[in-house]
Amino acid sequence: MKIVNTLVPILIGLVGVATASTASVNHPSTKLSAKQLLRGTVNLTDLPSLNLKGGDPVLGQDEQGDKEEELPTIAELVQTQKASIHVDREVNLRHRLLSSAGQIRPVFKTGNWCVDRHHDTQNLYLQVCHQHSNQKFTYHASTQEIKVDGRCMDDNIEDTGRNVYAHPCHGKKNQKWRTDNKGRIQGLHDYKCLDVTPGGNLYVRGCCNNCEGQRWYVPQHFPTTNSEIHPVLNSAACWDVGGTGKNLYVYGSCHNGNNQQYYYSPYSERIFLPLAEGSGCLDENPGDGNVYATGCHHGTNQKWWMDSYGRIRNRRDTSRCMEQNSGDNNLRMVGCNDNDNQRFIFPHGTFPIATSQVKPFFDSGKCLDSGGTDRNLYLSSSCGSDNFYQQFYFMAQSERIYDAAGIGCLDDQGSGARNVYLNKCQE
């Protein structure tokens, strides 16, 4: 399947495993680097570009993320699937973690914090970010080691607290790591996850799905540059907030103050106010729809995304968009429309505008469309860039494909003809 624009890395194999007639064709959209590919079916000719070979294992894990699942090698998969192979997300995220020296940052902590190697104790802990070598980590895919200043990240299994520190490399499993699709860094000694204590020290404990301290990102892949946010109607105006618990509004001028700086975390889908007094996250008040700053939590009313029209929506109700009120200039959530007071610009941030059409290889004149009966997806012969029923986007952390019209998520019917249709997204 050919995926246009930003969906290229993610939807390979949406319609199924490639057939023998398509596997030998070297399609441009399947020539993906290891950094791009998340999960899917790839042609055998693409193995060299992925740094994969026939003997490499395809790693997986159970839903709890506690242990490694034994899966066949790539060579074994080639024998069974003939024309193509399935490369699991673990193989590719292994390459994607750190392909060059860079910082590792926590998702949960607002502000400018990075993993740091203490010069004296060698402990790894959170410290204000800087550009010195003791904050520059490199992941080595061949050995699964994370290195800093020539030492390896080590899970101290002799310590009851499972402290993590930088130790001379020795090649044992307590120095081998991998990442999963939730942004967690998992040790291969007993498949527990990297976490952080209230005091900021790194340690290892059992993996859990809702533990924010276990989620990490690499700025090279997910930069979190603080940015002002402007309304399309007036690019000289900026979002502003009086502090935690206060409503957001559009202020007539930009002054580069802390209360006008925001950043978006693609792992948590939150908009943070990292520099404002009290800090916090953007939230929707379900009572009046006002957008305000408050403490961060896991609710869907703090999970945001921007559609291809520049409108900001959240997961609580994807049919509603953020709007600048013409009376008091407050930002509030209302039904989406085409008016410019629902469109915003995030010039230096990383808000994912990831909607795209999806087209099959065999007929690039057709597009995947969600406007069919019973919400079944079908191929439409009439492709339109302004047709929301033909726009989709992918969120890596949830591994879901959403439609831009706000109906829901792509779902496999699971029985019978196995139709793919839009269904309400399940938490």
UniProtKB/TrEMBL annotation:
Q: Which InterPro entries match?
A: Ricin_B-like_lectins, Ricin_B_lectin
The answer, when asked if Signal is one of the entry's keywords, is: yes
Residues forming the Ricin B lectin domain are: 142-265, 269-395
Question: Pfam families, per this entry?
Answer: Ricin_B_lectin
Does the record's keyword annotation contain Signal?
yes
- Which controlled-vocabulary keywords does the entry list? Signal
So which residues are the signal peptide here? 1-20
Protein name, entry field: RICIN
Q: Which organism is it from?
A: Seminavis robusta
